[in-house]
Amino acid sequence: MKFIAAGLALLVCSIQLGEGALGKLLDSSCATTRAGITPLIIGGASAAPFSNPWMVKVIGTKLCGGSLITSRFVLTAAHCIVPTHMRVHLGDYYTLVPGTIFSSSGCVPTAYELAVDTKIVHADFNADLDNDIGLLRMESFVQYSDYVQPICILVEGHMTGSSHFNITGWGKTDDANSSLTLQQATVFKTELYYCQKKYPSKKVDESQICAASTNSDVCSGDSGGPLSAQVSFVDRLLTFQYGVVSYGSKECNSFSVYTNVTHHRDWIVDAIKHFSGSLNLGYGSYP
Questions:
Q1: Domain count, the chain
Q2: Total-model pTM
Q3: Could you list the residue range(s) of the whole structural domain that residue 252 is in?
């Protein structure tokens, strides 16, 4: 990222839904963080160790980000998914000492790695990065903790709009190197027109979100990570995922395009239902 200037509840047969006045959540345990709600930081900074427990490091032929959305599935960009072996890191924060948080009590191990046994890309994903969304199913269920929690996905009901979003990742920073510490920053929603003008060779439509900031942007290595915002849901402030990092400028200093999660939420739910009971399906697409 560049700065410019639920336990083991099985999901095999059904998806756990949390009821609320605004709709239903994919996982009712989502966004329960020890850090609580922290202000978004305009311009970017190192994220608080407990503030983004849904962040996943996706490792294939290249580094990408992802978000934990249930105890078995990770949401990421389709262009991050490759036919070769893939794995995911959960609970990571400071990558120089992977899976470790430094606290007053010393070094606390937090993370672990799981292999991916099923990879699902949207059937209409293409080289122009249309429908740039995919799911990774981990080889086993994860147990939620202070460091590993799913982000909220609203699967039914109205999604409250937001004018600004949080971006997080370990991608390239101003010195052109990947960040050792998870970074976060704020970007602002803009009209799709600006992204269409910036990337005239691509089609930018309602299936995507255009966002930008004067002092921060996603960069190489941030692909697949979440575009999120904190929203009041019933009696809690929860972090919802609005988008998935798809593409931006080579200089990482302009408008960036994010796959619109709300537009694809039926695909997410149906794909999880379809692939929850199947074993070792490898690499494939889902309509």
A1: 1
A2: 0.85
A3: 41-276
